[in-house]
Amino acid sequence: MEKNDKETMEKNPKAVTTDEPEINYRGWKIMPFIIGNETFEKLGAIGTLSNLLIYLTTVFNMKSITATNIINIFNGTTNFSTLLGAYLCDTYFGRYKTLGFATIASFMGLLVIQLTAAIKKLHPPHCGSAENTCKGPTAGQMAFLLTGFGLLIVGAAGIRPCNLAFGADQFNPKTESGKRGINSFFNWYFFTFTFAQMVSLTFIVYVQSNVSWAIGLGIPAILMLIACALFFMGSKMYVKVKATGTPMTSVVQVLVVAVKRRGLNPPEQPSLSLFNHLPTSSINAKLSYTDQFRFLDKAATLNPQDQINPDGSSANPWKLCTMQQVEEVKCVVRVIPIWAAAIICHIVIVQQHTFAVFQALQSDRHLGNTNFQIPAASYVVFLMLSLTIFIPIYDRIVVPFLRKITGKDGGITILQRMGIGIFLSVITMIVSALVEERRRTIALTKPTIGIVPRKGAISSMSAVWLVPQFVLAGLTEAFASVGQVEFYYKQFPENMRSIGGSLFFCGMAGSSYLSSFLISIIHRTTRKAATGNWLPEDLNKGRLDYFYYTVAALGVLNFGYFLVCAKWYKYKGVSKDTLVVNLGSTLPQKTTV
After folding, report:
1. How far apart, in Å, are the Cα atoms of 172 and each of 58, 284, 574?
2. Where are the transmembrane segments (predicted)?
């Protein structure tokens, strides 16, 4: 709809007439439905996926390597499918319809997987004591299981890139309270995400492993059903942004026309002479001219042969684009270098979910002087706990305090927040290396307390020493990951926000693949080195601390790279005249972000 200036509306509210009904932004009033839906959805999905590897090896009698490959393929496909889901959302269906369909698909997927545990004919018979008595799944059983996986992939493709943007759509981006609401929403989104992870890794995993797989997988399915109900209960109150056609066509048009017109001379005053026309039906905010990527300006450079329609639009957008289109493409291109820095940063988080668990396995995990041992994988909860505790503190105490000093809605800029997270990722790796060096030294110089099968001796160092690195990793996510998601939402054009949201998950997939590549390189390089293999099965015989220092060094280089990118970066809507210092600047008052 056409929105007049707030001051004009206050002076003469009856004079404002529009063709479309006024948008009723309910903000936090609608959040119980959205955040409640997200919480139960995450509890359902994570409650199943967090223990799926154990399920495949114990119930479906799969070998570890087979189960691991299935999980890796599933996780990679799930993260990359968000690009397709985001494209379909922004192009055809809109966020509301996409989320509704995807939530139902997720519930169906969880239900199918639960049935494989509840119905005996849908999984192989339980293995006997001898290995040769194990029977693998039949083709029909595997087909039923993979159907559940497929439905979960469909659900994730729609939910992951859309739910953040859909929640932020409920706030008015043109009011101060709306802007602050959007900032807080990103924080609380990650709060619910980590809360769901903590519950899943403790209560739900315990039920699955110690009570019953049928009950343990039934709980997530029920939670997902509740998520579906909550989502549709708020249907009449949501702000539903409609799809506006494929946004990628505009991007391709700019690139094609810029190449066709590469021989044209760039105009002396591009902001005044470039062809500019913004359709009244566009949901995108009008962007100011920026002097980066000047070669793209040629796509909007007028020449005598160009034809203009009576309404002011280009007669052929494949021959002449608008300055608005060019600036939208610049927004997308500018984000990519920042995205690359975030991929390197997330490698640190990947290590805390893998090698840090192996560190815990070969450490003293006894709770005090009792015989009870904390499961090695449960130490990851400290990462989530630090994130869960810090986010409300940051949102309610730190941000208001910084806002008084800086005058910025978020207290600090998005890039400053991401920069702090990247710096903390380096500190996390250094602390991890120091702790591993201590654990290994104690294991080699002092009596051990047992042996881990197929691993090695257990160091007498308490696993509590691992808590600081998990806490730092949680703070890294609080700054880098939350800032990253907010950055994509605000810096992408409005009609591409779902695609922007999918970048976060593609980055996570990229971090996992890059981490695997780095580990393979370290294996091959150190296998014949004088120091021996850094990453053997027995950590006491390796040098995991050297690997951590290597990741830390990579993080230092990444931090320097990020600072250069942040210094160069220009926020969406900021013109050359209003930009002072990129890293310390904030979004202008008139930018609808």
Report:
1. 50, 14, 20
2. 99-119, 139-166, 186-207, 213-233, 372-394, 414-435, 503-526, 546-566
- What are the tokens at 203? 């209560």
Helix or strand run (H / E) with residue 69: helix 64-88
> Which positions of the chain have pLDDT values less than 50?
1-19, 65, 129-131, 574-593
Residue with tokens 């450079």: 301
Query: Which residues have a Cβ under 8 Å from the Cβ of 590 and sit 6 or more positions away?
Result: 573
364 with 461: CB under 8 angstroms? yes
Task: Enter the CATH code of domain 348-364+371-572.
Answer: 1.20.1250.20
Beta strands in 417-478 (DSSP E): 451-452, 456-457
Residue ranges of domains in the chain: 27-234, 348-364+371-572
Burial track 107-133 (b if 16+ CB lie within 10 A, e otherwise): bbbbbbbbbbbbeeebbbeeeeeeeee
Contact 587, 593 (CB under 8 A): yes
Q: Which of 303, 314, 318, 329 is nearest to 276 (CA)?
A: 314
- The Cα–Cα gap between 242 and 99 comes to 13
CA-wise closest residue to 193 among 47, 400, 38: 38
- Cα-based distances in Å from 77 to 45, 93, 328, 370, 393: 15, 22, 28, 43, 35
**In terms of C-beta distances under 8 Å and separation of at least 24 residues, what long-range contacts does 308-312 make, across chains too?**
312/277
| Ramachandran quadrant class, 240 (left: phi over 0; alpha: psi -120 to 50; beta: rest) | beta
**In degrees, to the nearest 5, what angle opens at C-alpha 286 toward C-alphas 282 and 569?**
125
Q: What is the pLDDT of residue 168?
A: 80
Q: Is it true that 27-234 and 348-364+371-572 share their CATH fold?
A: yes
**What is the sign, positive or negative, of the torsion defined by CA atoms of 441, 447, 450, 453?**
positive
Give the distance from CA 462 to its chain's centroid.
33
Residue 64's pLDDT is 54
Residue 420: per-residue pLDDT:
94
